[in-house]
Amino acid sequence: MQDEQSLVQSAREGNKEAFAQIYETYFDKIYRYVILRVGNKAEAEDMTQQVFVRAFESINSFRWKGVPFSAWLYRIAHNLVVDHIRREKKRPTVSLDESLVVGNSEPHAEVERKLDIERMVSATRQLTEAQREVISLRFAAGLPIAQVAKTMGKSEGAVKALQHSAIAALRKILLVGEDRGKG
Questions:
Q1: Prediction pTM value
Q2: Quick one: 36 and 16 in the same domain?
Q3: Range of the domain at 179
Q4: Of residues 17, 12, 31, the one with CA closest to residue 69
Q5: pLDDT values of the chain reduced to their tens digit, one per residue, 183 residues
Q6: Cα 115 to Cα 100: distance, rounded to the nearest angstrom
């Protein structure tokens, strides 16, 4: 794989294969970030595609500022997520249970997996915006502390502190939920 800078430069010059390589490199990470934030598979897929459409349309405006190119992609994703959340707050929706639509050879395992994901998404909604961002970037997108710090424009120490407080809060939220389920 070409190094990131030459790959981006090649894409900026109109090389579609270079942009395809960027897409292949970052799609899964961006998708995991978005799905954790929005909690809906179909919407996350659409939004992830939109991230790359916007990146393709505006790659010439990207400027190297000492942060990885992926930070720019995560910023686009973050902005789309924020816009989505604002729109969702304004309209009532009813969620279609995907497990009813898609067959599975082990329905109990699928239901348990779906419940675990729903619990985690619900728990992350109780965190602060900054904590959600850190959890999404660190664990859904799999970014190291240094890159999360650059992406969020914070120090590594601040990111570590946010991550620690977010994990502690999630642990507390999830344990309280388990205690309610037993009662």
A1: 0.64
A2: yes
A3: 98-183
A4: 12
A5: 458 888 889 989 988 899 999 999 999 999 988 988 888 888 889 999 999 999 999 998 888 877 788 889 999 999 999 888 888 777 654 444 444 444 455 766 767 766 676 777 778 888 888 888 888 888 877 788 988 888 888 899 999 999 999 888 888 888 876 665 555
A6: 14
